[in-house]
Amino acid sequence: MVLKSTRNENASAQFKEAIFIGLAPDGGLYYPAEKIDFSDVYGKFDSTTPFNTIATELTAAFLKDETDREGAERIVNRAFNFEPVLAEVGEGIQVLELFHGPTCAFKDFGASFLASSMEEFLNEGKERAIILTATSGDTGSAVARAFYGKKNIDVVILYPSGRVSPLQEKQLTTLGGNIHALEVKGSFDDCQRMVKEAFGNASLKEEFSLSSANSINIGRLFPQSFYYVWARMQQGGENPVFCVPSGNFGNITAGLYAANWGLPVDHFVAATNANKVVPEFLENGVYSPRASVTTHSNAMDVGAPSNFERMEMLYNKDVANFRKQIHGDWVSDKETEETMSRIHKEYGYLMCPHTAVGYLAAERYRAKVGNKPVITLSTAHPGKFVEVVDDVLGIKPELPPELSSLLNKEKKAELVENKVEEIEAFLRRNF
Ligand SMILES: *Cc1c(COP(=O)(O)O)cnc(C)c1O
């Protein structure tokens, strides 16, 4: 698959190169620039098709010039020993649970596929890679788990000090081995900027074979399209609306790709918390990225979503085109709390604050457009956000044992200032 940079028509790379490059040399994001039509591939699936079969078929189609069917099968089967689950919660709304992977969040899908693809393609000319990644919480833990123990690959994770949950922090800082954590005095946007600046330094990037694993990496984005296809097949009936709780807009962009490649979908709802630059843009046509604010749904506290550039390419930078496919909505912390309580009371269903943001936006959209079926994405297990859930509902959701056992492990992280020089110094000390 030939990919191009969002900032330079002429900068192109194959998928297997782009996953190691991460951010394009001009600072843009790789996106599939060819016209893709997967209608024939989608046409082979129905409600009985297993998730891994869908993933393998789509991988084989996407990478048809870069690997064979066996290669696609190897990548997929190494990546996924977990699956999405579709749950009926309330009338006309299905919740697509994406938290049944090793770190109980949807980012496991992208991170596992990326790690598996890198393992597949690493020996083609490159001896090692260092993954540099900024996280607002869940990316880092999913990446850490996906890459833990992988040969010839090290991971350096930057996270905002005091702005991730205690459990998220343990997930980032207790693995050790090839996983290294930098605790940054600043916000997620600072972490993201530092990583971008490090990648902007060509000699540093070259010297340490730096790669990215953020949602900017096309190797994470592409596999996130699989569960939209799977859910659409499961659901079977009238074309659904997909509602996606969004922060950096990687998850929804993958869904938009699936739809633009031929998956029958009615519409998308982009749901945010108070970090609402995209819903505002959809409403008034003005895009004004800014510093993020802290909310209950902290994995979505992003004030300048990276994937906006990919969406712009998809829609030719025309807000009228965006609006044909996406509706925007935002949900306050108070509404998030009310939704978590109400849904628990009415249906006995516990949801994490991110999922609640999506759920309320799904309900409001249904009321607005006359009750179309909506599939809303659940991005994390409620137990990952036990503090918020406990505050709101007075219930401490149980965590799977893999996660709860982390709480007793020792944190190992280096506290650093929010300057790119800190990254370089760390690399020089350690590699
Ligand atoms: C990352 C994350 C999101 C936001 O996903 P984007 O792809 O950044 O839009 C939502 N919920 C949870 C739990 C997350 O970890």
Summary, kept brief:
Helices cover 44% and strands 16% of the residues. It has 431 residues and is of the alpha/beta class. It binds pyridoxal-5'-phosphate.
Secondary-structure map:
Layout: E1 2-5, E2 8-14, H1 15-21, E3 30-32, H2 39-43, H3 51-62, H4 69-79, E4 85-88, E5 93-97, H5 107-122, E6 129-134, H6 138-147, E7 153-160, H7 166-173, E8 179-184, H8 188-200, H9 202-207, E9 210-212, H10 218-221, H11 226-235, E10 241-245, H12 250-260, E11 267-272, H13 277-284, H14 308-314, H15 319-325, E12 326-330, H16 333-347, H17 353-369, E13 374-378, H18 386-393, H19 401-404, E14 414-416, H20 420-430
Parallel strand pairs: 5-13, 6-7, 6-9, 7-8, 8-14, 10-11, 10-13, 11-12
Antiparallel strand pairs: 1-2, 1-3, 4-5
Bound molecules: pyridoxal-5'-phosphate.
Pyridoxal-5'-phosphate is lined by residues 105, 107, 138, 215, 245-251, 299-300, 354, 379-380.
Query: How are the strands ordered across the major sheet?
Result: 4-5-13-10-11-12
Instruction: Return the average pLDDT rounded to an integer.
Output: 94
Rg is 20 Å
Runs in which pLDDT lies below 50 for 5 or more consecutive residues are: none
- How many β-strands, per DSSP? 14
CATH class of the domain at 84-104 and 220-400: Alpha Beta
Strand content: 15-25%
Helices and strands: which structural class?
A: alpha/beta
Oligomer: single chain
Which small-molecule species are bound to the chains here?
A: pyridoxal-5'-phosphate
